[in-house]
Amino acid sequence: MSLANHFDLIATDGAARTGRLTTPHGVVRTPAFMPVGTAGAMKGIHWREVRDAGADIVLGNTYHLMLRPGAERIAALGGLQRFTGWNGPMLTDSGGFQVMSLSELRKVTENAVTFRSHLDGAKVELSPERSIEVQRLLGSDIAMQMDECVRLPAERADIERAMQLSLRWAERSKRAFESAAPGYMLFGIAQGGDVPELRHTSARGLVEIGFHGYAIGGLAVGEPQAVMLAMIEEVAPILPEGRPRYLMGVGTPEDMLEAVARGIDMFDCVMPTRNGRHGVAFTRFGQVNLRNARHADDPRPLDEESEWPSTRDCARAYLHHLVKSGETLGAMLLSEINVAYYQRLMQDIRDAIAKGTFEEFRQRTRADWARGDIAPR
């Protein structure tokens, strides 16, 4: 493998790993959760709260940013970090997931995907080469290969076709990335749906091509959790031990905890901010629905032992009122509470792996979630 390695594995505990990924814009501690800033912004939360919560890296969306405001415009304005005000590392996805979600508006060929913009209906072509070009114009620290993602369940023939196409696109993506400046990274994406043999073929093919890191894609797209975890168990042992492993689009705290136990280093998901906008908080007691009337007269905070101010200080009654009233502040507070919880969970996981107590932490955390929220007043 000729590509430079920017990942240092610090400690392992069983299959769980903690490490350090060095990027041009800073160091990422792993396991890491990347909050999703689709269009260059976190929904309902400022970058300073994202940073204060403990996030080292965030995610931007190639498809959305290339359509608006445009990759060339962002490049002229100094790149994604300067444009947004986020001074840390950024990963950008390739647009492959949007290709799947826009199935009514797109056509996939060997060369590229042609689709209609959801903004104005304009015809747009996205090839592996253009995807890499856009990500380089954005200035993302970690770019992703162009791939085709299939929503599950699906026929084996469709899964295999998309997997093989993604492998060919992986080779083209790597060639397009060859002139990138030192320190910037390109990750390959293992596909193969819920078919172990296809997952093996994809992973081995990617390792042969050689990437700075490896993602597992095409999961959390409709399959049960047991299937997702089984596919991780099939793929992770094939990937190089000294390279970062990224499970795309995942997920719930439980999903992440179980994926870490199977050797995953990086995650992303819109769930913390999306659930926050819908009145749901993530806490060490599990999910708490602030729309529930049980909170209307409760002066207690979500978690009086939390280090995050809004989690520790805001009364449940007030959060309930904001959510029921449709106040923007409610979505803002719950989004920051959720991002902070995800980052605290990642820090606790890193600490437990470093101490060799990950399995104990895993069982204790699952038991806390199972007990549920504190009794109503």
Automatic annotation (TrEMBL):
It holds the Pfam family TGT. One of its GO terms (biological process) is tRNA queuosine(34) biosynthetic process. The active site is at D93, D268. GO terms for molecular function: tRNA-guanosine(34) queuine transglycosylase activity. Residues 15-369 form the tRNA-guanine(15) transglycosylase-like domain. The keyword Nuclease does not apply. Pathway: tRNA modification; tRNA-queuosine biosynthesis. Homodimer. Within each dimer, one monomer is responsible for RNA recognition and catalysis, while the other monomer binds to the replacement base PreQ1. NCBIfam families: Q_tRNA_tgt, tgt_general. This is Queuine tRNA-ribosyltransferase. It comes from Bradyrhizobium sediminis. The gene is tgt.
